[in-house]
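User: My collaborator sent over this chain with a note saying "see what the structure looks like." That's all I know about it. Can you take a look?
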Amino acid sequence: MLYIFLPLVFGYLIPISNDDTLKRINSHTNRLILVILSLMGLSLAGLDNLNQNLSQILKYTLVFFTSIGFFNLAVLPLIDRFLPIKSENKKNKVPLTTMALESLKLIVVVALGLVVGLVINIDLSWVDTASEIILLLLLFLIGIQLRNSGLTLKQILVNKQGLSIAAAVIVSSLMGGVIAALILDIPINYGLAMASGFGWYSLAGILMGDALGPVYGGASFMLELLRELVALMLIPMIIQRHPSTAIGYAGATAMDFTLPIIQNTGGIKCVPIAIVSGFILSLLVPILMLFFVSL
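Assistant: Without extra context I'll predict from the sequence alone. Here is the result:
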């Protein structure tokens, strides 16, 4: 599995200054995510005992979500206590429904792939190979995106709150992953890998699916998507009193998808902290996942 990490490294080594080129890369990345998620749906259709496997996906999702969420919300308030952030008292309206629909449409893509695989009697033996090829290209483009996100190493290292939040999320998530693995009686390294998605549902589901099969891939996708949907509701509710907890629970999405909510409800001072935390977590998702599944 470690060879899959190489395209991410190669992509990260490529600096791009042209905004139009970066926009095209972002657009291609989004399209590839949709394609590979539809292939995930096809993979699910090819499983034997589909009803039993879907039940297992739901079980894994709920156990990991509960365990990881418990530890996240137990540890992150410590950052609020010892490294407080002064948020602004803002009451701006945020488009939660629109953002939630944006996330939910990816479930529709997976579901359509599943329906097509069930309705049309076709050979699905090619799906795993196609998914792996597209995954390599996707990781290459993600590496380029991370390199050209605008953050320098100095900006990351001097932001103590962002570093602390990311560290708290990583430690607490891995603790939750171990407990979930023990509850489900699965290998500990699988639990650690499942806990390393940090809210990046598309990539987490794809990586876990490629490494451990569609059951783990589907569970990881649903786990991180559920985390993001809860974050959309939780951030406006707690960011005034617990900004670090709100930013941390957003996970990797704090640097992009949930950033507008963090800014609108927590103020501009929360933005650089959220970007640093989200960037670190985004960078570590493929690194930690690939490391743990290779053990």
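A starting point for your reply to your collaborator: The chain has one domain: 17-83+95-293.
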